[in-house]
Amino acid sequence: MRRSQQDRSRGTKAALTAAARALFAARGYDAVPADEIVRAAGVTRGALYHHYADKKALFRDVVVGLEAEITAEIRTAMTSAPDLPTGIAAALTAFLDACARPEVRQVSLLDAPRVLGWSDWRAIEAEFGLALLIEAFTLATDAGLVRPQPVGVLSRLILSALTEAALLIADADDPAQIRAQAEQALGTWIAGLIG
Amino acid sequence: MRRSQQDRSRGTKAALTAAARALFAARGYDAVPADEIVRAAGVTRGALYHHYADKKALFRDVVVGLEAEITAEIRTAMTSAPDLPTGIAAALTAFLDACARPEVRQVSLLDAPRVLGWSDWRAIEAEFGLALLIEAFTLATDAGLVRPQPVGVLSRLILSALTEAALLIADADDPAQIRAQAEQALGTWIAGLIG
DNA sequence: AAGTCTTACATACATACGGTATGTATGTAA
DNA sequence: TTACATACATACCGTATGTATGTAAGACTT
Predict the structure, then answer these.
(1) Which nucleotide, over all strands, has the C1' atom closest to the CA of A49?
(2) Protein footprint on strand C: which nucleotides are under 7 Å from a CB?
(3) Where is coiled-coil annotated (chains A, B) (predicted)?
């Protein structure tokens, strides 16, 4: 059986991103040498630098994949709920769960801003997580749940608070308690937006 | 004139942190080789590794110094106001101004979490910025401006939103507009805490 | 189907950085 | 003033990234 060049490329890129994702998640971006990634992926440095300009480009691919994945999860949680308010609540839960995963925490929250640069990272976030948040916001506004207002900046502030909450929970000795406090604080905030 | 050993140490450490701070601020932690730092400080690698365990330890010293500096500025802004509400407003302004400085943005907000590790960075933040925020919160609670509540988690969420706002403003094409939106959003949040 | 071109990879190498080991000068105390 | 500790300088080593070069495997052309 003859594999096409496209298939070959897809296969090795997938192997590289999968290996890189696991290693980056476990030890962080620059604690993982490219050698180890290619070894885990069953290829050599040649393959890596053929498909990616540099190590950072591979990392970016990992981040985008991860972001796409968790955004899909959250979107599913939100849209599969019977009504919008419970959907939003479910989305919040799904978000906190996603951020609690070590790979998300390490790769997407800790490494990404610095490795990719803040503005590039922000662009990725805007494409995925922020887009979802603004979507939810718009739905809520249309449903009359919150009063109309410029949502761009507000969404980013909320997203950062959500992210911070997720990190706090992940790092806490008593996650349940911290999560309760965080959800209460965030709930109060959201409630204040209704009017 | 004979300089004591303490004076020598203080001098070279100060030269190292000053040089490192400027270089880290301009180009980021790992874009700056230690060689360049020691050259700028007028010493050699020997001096660096005599006083600091590694490059990261020097960076940490820079972060702590920076944090102490801006916290002092903000505290001054807050306490030198005639009353608490205007003091808090002044503190907010001072905070946003501080975060807008490139060195704070790069060193303290972008590099620090990853280079030092999130929990160590969090500890530094807790000692300076967060402590100030909680202090303000407690004052406001005592003055009856906000209702009593657990402030630890809430303060962190607010701090992260404040920080995000500062980054957004620093990165915006139209800083004034973004700043206005951010202050409005934050103001609404704070207002919701009263009662 | 033979030859040519292009893509996909492997290997070898150049370079740069961080950290250490060793040597030397300067201050300090018995 | 002798014995020691502290503060630095220099030379070196290991390891990482990225590049240059070579090779094999599809993919067109005729």
Answers:
(1) D18
(2) 7-12, 16-23, 27-28
(3) none
Is the pLDDT at B55 greater than 90? The verdict is: yes
CB contact (8 A) between residue B189 and residue A185: no
Mean pLDDT is lowest, of B1-15, B31-45, B99-113, for: B1-15
CA-nearest of A169, A166, A136, A172 to A151 is A136
Domains of chain A: 1-52 (1.10.10.60), 55-193 (1.10.357.10)
Q: How far is the CA of B36 from the C1' of C14 (A)?
A: 21
Whole-angstrom distance, CA of residue A57 vs CA of residue A46: 15
B77 close to B68: Cβ distance less than 8 angstroms:
no
As a whole number of angstroms, the distance between CA B166 and CA B92 comes to 10
Structure-token pair, residue A93: 């839960």
Residue B65 backbone class (left: φ over 0; alpha: ψ -120 to 50; beta: rest): alpha
Nucleotides of D under 7 A from a protein CB: 6-11, 15-22, 26-27
pLDDT at B190 over 90: no
Q: Are A12 and A47 in contact (CB under 8 A)?
A: yes
Q: Can you say whether the dihedral through the CA atoms of A122, A124, A130, A135 is positive or negative?
A: positive
| Closest chain A residue to B161, measured at CA | A157
The pLDDT of residue A170: 87
User: What does the pLDDT look like over B90-140, one tens digit per residue?
Assistant: 999 999 999 989 999 999 988 999 899 888 999 999 999 999 999 998 999
Measured on CA atoms in the order A129, A131, A135, A140, is the torsion positive or negative? positive
Minimal Cβ distance to B114: which of A110, A158, A193: A110
What pLDDT, in 10s, does the model give residues A96-133?
Answer: 999 989 999 999 988 999 899 888 999 999 999 999 99
